[in-house]
Amino acid sequence: MFEVVLTTDRTMMSNHHGKEFLGFMATGPPIGMPEWLWTMLAAPRVKVDKYGRPIEAPYGMRKIESILLDAGFNVAIIDPDHLHKHLNTLKVLMLSHHDYFAYGPPSSEWWSLTGLEPLNRRSFTKLMNSHVIRKAKEKGVKIIAGGPAAWQWLYELELMDKWGVDTVVDGEGEKIVVDLVQRALNNEPLPRYVYVGVEDSPSIEEIPVIKGASVNGLVEIMRGCPRGCRFCSVTLRPLRFIPLEKILAEIEINLEAGLKGIILHSEDVLLYHADGVKPRPEPVIKLHTEVLSKLGNKRHLAWSHASLSAIKYAEENYKLVSKLMNEMILNEYRTYLGVEVGIETGSPRLAREIMVAKSKPYPPEMWPEIVEDAFKIMHENKIIPAATVILGLPGETTDDVVKTVELIERLKPYRSIIVPMFFVPMGALKKNKWFMRDQLRHEHIDAMIKMYEHTVYWAEDIIRFYMKSPIYWPLRVILKYFLAYVRRNVNKYRGKLEEMIKK
Amino acid sequence: MTKEHAMRWTKEGRSTHSRKFLNIVVHSSLSPELLIDEFNKLSITTGCRRFNLFIIGDESAKSLESVREIILSNHIYTISVYVLSEEQLKAFSREICIGETVFLSPMHTGYLKEICGD
Does B65 touch chain A (CB under 8 A)? Predict the structure, then answer.
């Protein structure tokens, strides 16, 4: 029984059937099916032990758990359905989330477009109003909230009071969490809000190795990003490379827990120990050699993110992508590699304004060409990207959106998913306003329709890759039903949006 | 900073704490604009990057909205925001007396004596 418990709601405490991308369904409202079925599809329950400790838990929570365990606290991550088992001993409840109130991308976009509250927000609200958490508050349990969406609490101060959230921690928590939890246990006054600035970011030595498996075997290989895109919050953090031995230790922990594969997490996997923004083949090959020797032939591998410019540069200068894929990663069991990439815009002008270093070492004027070349390289090497495009960036003109539409048309031959995202004020642009549906123009609708057509065109082919095993066939059926539903309704919806613009 | 602001610098504070945290004590009735303005000035004049912001009074929501504006303006500072009563502030007498402390609301300058003595 634990005194300090870390938890979150079901949309986060799930392995999404071992398919990370299904988790993104939790950012939308249930469409064309009841909420329970949508939840089952996006965020099924996870396996737990007799105390309710999940076998796999969100990576950030694992880091905090690790630090608190090292400091000697009686702490565990507990599945939200098992919190009641610890009510008698509980003194500090710690929450984490990627998107507590659905204000982040892409939740805010689906919410704005459909007018329906996304699942993640519904699920978190349900958790906070649950009997067990209300009971814990009555007992005087302190609640500390953190995670990547901590900033959202400053827009929900009334809920912070209503639910009795004592402290919110915004930023990397490694260096402050021990003191904070100790204060909570000692019943000392707690800060209402802690913003952790860059100078208090943990060093490599201060970032601990996780002590339990992470969701889908996610393992961090870098923290921070050198590209400085103005819409992104990660670039506000200093860049650190996690040493190989720590990466391998975390992979070992995941494999011991029975996971069938891992995800290398970085904002740009190919920049592992890079020379600035130029990938170096040696460290990337060494990383993959070591990781794959741990994984063996049958376990799968994914990258969380890569930049399109790094893909182009690495392939054109070192044939690095084809070497990694064809000589190391792909085999009878690993038939593709999934990764998230950012297109964000097709306009070189806007690229120069808001993400001047995203194209580096190439100039921003080459951005559309970089995107196209990188998509071609990925297609030829069986890398399946899920790409994002941001609509409504500050300073965006009609011409910028038209250029984005043209670029998406040119990407048609390449297997990929392209998702539109409405601008959310984060990173260096956080003083700006959210982009909402009442700001949509005809060109935005054209862009969204182009991305929809592209994604639907490739979706069935990707599902074949992504859900090959017979155990996924029921999910395939539901997803195919969903795609058919979207196809039937998209024109109706387009009409509604057009009408809205006329008004 | 205006003349009304009382600032306490102790020898001990300079040697051990001055580079760590700057404490700012403010009443929750202070206007958000003034708080943001004063915070920005303090961060420039002191060069400090770490702050304890003690907000006294019951208008905590308004004060936290000011904090949101401060955080939106930059990402380099570490800021711990406490919303508490005058009585609870005494729990921080060590931080306030030993470290560097700025009282942004003139009515609170008397606290210094009350909390830290002569």
Answer: yes
Task: Choose, out of A103, A151, A154, A434, the residue to mutate when testing the contact with B (most B CBs < 10 Å).
Answer: A154
Q: Do A199 and B68 touch (CB under 8 A)?
A: no
Q: Give how far the C-alpha of residue A139 lies from the chain's centroid of Cα atoms, to the nearest Å.
A: 34
B85 touches chain A (CB under 8 A): no
Beta bridge partners of A92: A4, A142
Q: How far, in Å, are A112, A252, A283, A286 from residue A294 at the CA level?
A: 44, 8, 17, 13
What is the distance in angstroms between the Cα of A170 and the nearest Cα belonging to chain B? 10
Q: Is the pLDDT of residue B48 over 90?
A: no
pLDDT at res. A120: 96
Contacts of B94 (CB under 8 A, 6+ apart): none
CB contact under 8 A, A193 and B91: no
Reported as a single tens digit per residue, the pLDDT across A370-420 is 999 999 999 999 999 999 999 999 999 999 999 999 999 999 999 999 999
pTM metric for this prediction = 0.88
Best CA proximity match to A211, nearest among A251, A177, A253, A244:
A253
Task: Provide the CB-side half-sphere exposure for A240 (13 A, CA).
Answer: 17
Which of A153, A190, A195 best tests the B interface by mutation, with the highest count of B CBs <10 A? A195
Chain mean pLDDT for chain A: 92
User: Looking at CA atoms only, how far is residue B63 from chain A in angstroms?
Assistant: 11
Enter the ipTM. Answer: 0.79
Q: Find the radius of gyration of the CA atoms of chain A.
A: 22
pLDDT, one tens digit per residue, over A394-404 is 999 999 999 99
